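Please, is this right?
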Amino acid sequence: MTYEGVKNYRAELEETLKRLSEHDGVQGLVVIDKEGRVSQTTFDQQYTKKILSNISGFTSQTRNVVRDLDPMNDLSFVRVRSNKTEILIAPEEDYILVVIQQPSQD
């Protein structure tokens, strides 16, 4: 990727993060790069480490399930909902975006 490509990619990611963080109920977000390191977070270090240690493996296992069921398919989005929290996971080519939010009252 060229310097301009990286610059555009970072600007686009920043805009997406800003837009997501402004949604009602969003508690925070984490961006995990393709090497498994946190590149951005809005959480404290302890909670970020907790997310990192669980999400990367969970995403990998979930991707494997999708591919086992259909080898021509790939994971594009995961939503995990509990009574208190909703975890949104968007695995992209270069990063995994994780959003933690309060579940909407359906």
